[in-house]
Fold this sequence. Notes:
Elements: E1 2-6, H1 10-20, E2 26-31, H2 35-45, E3 49-51, H3 54-58, E4 64-67, H4 74-83, E5 87-90, H5 98-111, E6 115-117, H6 125-135, E7 142-150, H7 160-163, H8 171-187, E8 191-199, E9 211-218, E10 223-229, E11 238-243, E12 246-251, E13 261-266, E14 269-273, H9 280-292, H10 302-321, E15 325-326
Parallel strand pairs: 1-2, 1-4, 2-3, 4-5, 5-6, 7-10
Antiparallel strand pairs: 7-11, 8-9, 8-15, 9-10, 11-12, 12-13, 13-14
Helix pairs in contact: 1-9, 4-5, 5-10, 6-8, 8-10
Amino acid sequence: MRWGFIGASNIAERVIPSLRKIAGQELVAVCSRSAPRAQQFAEQQGLASAHTDLSELLALGLDAVYISSTNEQHAAQTLAALDAGCHVLCEKPLAMSLADAAAMIERADTQGRVLGTNHHLRASALHGRVRQMIADGAIGRVHGVQVSHAVYLPPHLQGWRIDAPGAGGGVVLDILVHDGDLLRFLLQAEPRRITTVTRQHGLGQGQVEDSAMSLIEFDGGVLAQTHESFVARHAATRLHVLGTEGALYAEGSLTQAGGGRLWLRDAAGEREIEVPAVDLYEVGFDAFVRACAGQGAPLATGVDGQRSMAVALAGLASAASGQSQQID
Ligand code: NDP
């Protein structure tokens, strides 16, 4: 497939080596709001052309685009790319409103193109194993999950994420959106209510939160606690799944690195479960490319992206109102 990149972003630089591992992919062009940044990105990544006009990029006859602009641009760029006949792998959060996400999903359907959401944590072999073990009843009936996804936002990313609510800044739209998706993926259940408290602990500016804790209630009664933060220096990420017969505990899996360690504790004691580290973005791109060729679905579809957004938006509404919120 011939690919274009919309957004000369940090994450685009990071995922390009993963896309290059997949046979048959030609990386063609980039579009940025800034001509010098587009030019520099194209040169560094070896792309043939650099653009500031999206319609110019879309006139190149591309097969697919990867959208990693700031969040408020995702919806309009996705609609334009779909109308130009491209498949779209869009970064999370898919959009800024559920109505925009619905329009994106509908347009992909009418244009017969694939729309994927880059929820990379689904690609983890460790998370796949946890999902399978939950489904197999390895720890009995699951009743609780704890997610500690608190990190320190590196200085080079301390821009719109901490001071621009209009661009979708804040830890809720940045990380709770991933945790909402991961919980749906692991539990194979839908979240119904959320109670969220947000705070600023030194990075968030104006109204933008840098820390959040939530309680999410799932169909079937599972309760999940999540903690997202931009200010947690030297913290390990943790995932703890609690069942009636045992528990699964993972450290270091809620990252971009694709590794982590997993332990099972039950009546037989504690043992580590070996899981291979994988390139999360390669696995995600591979599934997306296959989906574009008519084989299966992307790891996270447009609908999955809309549902994870619903969790995050309800979390923000809960934090603002001080009340628990139904997840639409
Ligand atoms: P960046 O801040 O690096 O890039 C976002 C946009 O900001 C770019 O498209 C670019 O806009 C502009 N920009 C980039 N660098 C500069 C600069 N030095 N000065 C001024 N403007 C700049 O954001 P991220 O790459 O971290 O995130 C982009 C998207 O990807 C977001 O939607 C985010 O949520 C998502 N993301 C997803 C991850 C995942 O693992 N799934 C991980 C990280 C991010 P333009 O090109 O128009 O000039």
